[in-house]
Write a structure and sequence with these properties.
By secondary structure, the chain is an alpha/beta fold. The protein has 10 helices and 8 strands. Helix 4 links the parallel strand 4 and strand 5. It binds flavin-adenine dinucleotide.
Length: 276
């Protein structure tokens, strides 16, 4: 499995210590030759400078680095200025999202959904960017059901997405079912599973509630039982996630995208277990 394609996601650090650590983590992860790094973007553009500065710092490794970009709350002209700046800086890959505004701020902006952002980028910039979009094997939390969400996912692909990265999940069947359904709907782009390493139960439970990812009962029970025993949590997490990745790759997943949370250890352990 030495040819497994991997990519790693970061967020813009908020402190000087976080910034310093980013460079160490970057170098550790660059050592396994990922296809790309990506950097998240805050609601309503709140991390705009942080995202760009982080992209530039990660790119020093020579690894292609993609900023995430969300359209919610932004005007077409703001988006065009940001995209032109990215293009001028030699950025060639983007993760194009609707994003979420903090509750109470409404929808705002001129583009309502990610398919409209993808269409806008294609209209204004042609094929200047490789566009990644988000996919939800367990359904986006706001979607009425999986059928509706799949229809909306297909719209993003038809608007010109090149590739998709999924929300994380712990049930490989959800991914395989989603891929079968979108293939039947004519989508041919690669759908890369998003992988969340397990290192901390309370944080994982909080994230999973917010983004609609299900933690299976057997994993939850085991993590609860470990309490504050971080070593056992990490050891169990490494085993569970390595098996999930193995299953996904054996079932035809075209690569793996790790939500690193700016930590190298847990993602690297899994990647090494896969023989990369
Ligand atoms: P969309 O594809 O627009 O979908 C949002 C909802 O609207 C879904 O319920 C969908 O079914 C529905 N919908 C879509 N199109 C239509 C339409 N045309 N008409 C009617 N309904 C429609 N968030 C951040 O804030 N920053 C990040 O950097 C970030 N990175 C992410 C990276 C990945 C890989 C993933 C999976 C998620 C990321 N998110 C990020 C979270 C994401 O912003 C949220 O999940 C957000 O709620 C949806 O964004 P989207 O691009 O998937 O939206």
């Amino acid at each position: 499995m030495s040819s497994t394609t991997v990519s790693f996601e970061f967020f813009p650090p908020k402190t000087p210590a976080g910034q310093e650590k980013l460079l160490t983590v970057r170098d550790q992860l660059a050592a396994v030759s990922p296809e790309f790094f990506s950097v998240t973007y805050g609601a309503g553009g709140s991390t705009q400078d942080g995202t760009l500065n982080t992209v530039l710092a990660l790119r020093e490794t020579g690894i292609d680095t993609a900023p995430h970009l969300s359209c919610i709350g932004a005007s077409r002209s703001e988006l065009k200025t940001l995209l032109q700046n990215y293009k001028d800086k030699g950025i060639r890959r983007l993760v194009a999202l609707r994003g979420d505004l903090p509750s109470g701020m409404g929808m705002g902006g001129e583009l309502r959904y990610a398919n409209e952002l993808v269409a806008f980028i294609r209209q204004e910039f042609g094929d200047d960017f490789i566009l990644e979009v988000a996919a939800y094997p367990e359904s986006h939390p706001q979607a009425a059901n999986l059928d509706v969400d799949i229809k909306n996912f297909v719209r993003k692909c038809q608007a010109g997405a090149d590739s998709a990265i999924t929300q994380y999940f712990f049930n490989a069947d959800a991914y395989f079912y989603f891929v079968d359904r979108v293939r039947a709907a004519g989508v041919e782009i690669p759908i890369i599973p998003g992988i969340m390493p397990i290192t901390n139960y309370s944080k994982l439970a909080r994230f999973s509630d917010a983004c609609g990812a299900e933690i299976p009962r057997w994993i939850r029970k085991q993590l609860e039982a470990y309490g504050d025993d971080t070593d056992s949590i990490c050891q169990f997490g490494e085993e569970v996630i390595s098996r999930l990745c193995q299953q996904l790759l054996e079932g035809g997943a075209p690569g793996l995208h790790f939500y690193t949370l700016n930590q190298a250890g847990a993602s690297l352990a899994v990647v090494r277990n896969l023989g990369k």
